[in-house]
Amino acid sequence: MTYHKHPDIDWPEASFTEQTVTMPGGDLVGKYSPVRISIVQDKVEL
Question: Which residue pairs, CB below 8 angstroms and at least 24 apart, start in 26-29?
């Protein structure tokens, strides 16, 4: 996973999907994760 050090505009809400994640203690929590594709130096990163 990577991040953009100097982001431009906010991503549209449609770029995010809600996922349920199991925490180490067994609790289930919801989180929103973006689905984006970046091309960096001729390499595709999902």
Answer: none
- Give the domain ranges of the chain: 13-45
Q: In the chain, which ranges are E strands?
A: 16-22, 28-34, 38-40, 43-45
pTM of the predicted protein model: 0.44
State the average pLDDT for the chain.
80
Distance from C-alpha of 6 to C-alpha of 16, rounded to nearest angstrom: 20
Q: Which tokens go with 37?
A: 């594709």
Q: Which residues contact 38 (CB under 8 A, 6 or more apart)?
A: 2, 44, 45
